[in-house]
């Protein structure tokens, strides 16, 4: 017999759109390692596990990425992302949303502002 979890027991998720400010070596694997190392250094193993942190996507062409976390840990995840340093440069947080569709608006606005449209 399969147990179903009630909707009220599920964690609410938030999606954070970020942009690394460094120029070189923008690969998905490297970004994931930097994020997890920062989370482990800042919060420890237990704190990092409580974040429900998951790297959803990293677009190497647009140089933006999306992470998912639970609603209680949004501030901690933003701190973790802002503490990342690579080549003396950090991360820029572009937006936070409850849906992936909402992040599309943030990314389109950012790309259009950068292109001068």
In brief:
This protein has 117 residues and is an alpha+beta fold.
The order of strands across the largest sheet is 2-3-1-4
Number of strands: 4
Residue fraction in strands: 15-25%
Question: Radius of gyration, Cα only, in angstroms?
Answer: 15 Å
Unreliable residue stretches: none
Reported for the largest beta sheet, the result is: 4 strands, antiparallel
Overall helicity:
40-55%
Average pLDDT, to the nearest integer?
Answer: 85
Annotated CATH topology: Alpha-Beta Plaits
> From the 3D coordinates, which CATH architecture would you assign?
2-Layer Sandwich
SSE pattern, N- to C-terminal: EHEEHEH
Overall body shape: globular
How many structural domains? 1
Kindly provide the name of the CATH class.
Answer: Alpha Beta
Sheet/helix structural class? alpha+beta
Count of helix runs: 3
| CATH homologous superfamily caption | Ribonuclease P, Pop5 subunit
Distance between the termini: 56 Å
Task: Please supply descriptive tags for the structure shown above.
117 residues; alpha+beta; Alpha-Beta Plaits; 3 helices; globular
């Amino acid at each position: 017999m399969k147990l179903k979890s009630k909707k009220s027991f599920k964690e609410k998720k938030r999606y954070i759109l970020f942009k690394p400010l460094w120029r070189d070596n923008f690969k998905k694997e490297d970004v994931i390692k930097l994020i997890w190392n920062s989370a482990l250094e800042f919060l420890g193993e237990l704190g990092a596990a409580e974040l429900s942190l998951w790297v959803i996507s990293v677009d190497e062409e647009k140089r933006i990425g999306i992470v998912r976390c639970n609603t209680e840990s949004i501030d901690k995840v933003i701190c973790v992302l802002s503490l990342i340093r690579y080549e003396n440069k950090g991360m820029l947080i572009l937006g936070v949303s409850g849906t992936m569709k909402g992040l599309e608006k943030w990314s389109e606005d950012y790309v259009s502002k950068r292109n001068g449209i």
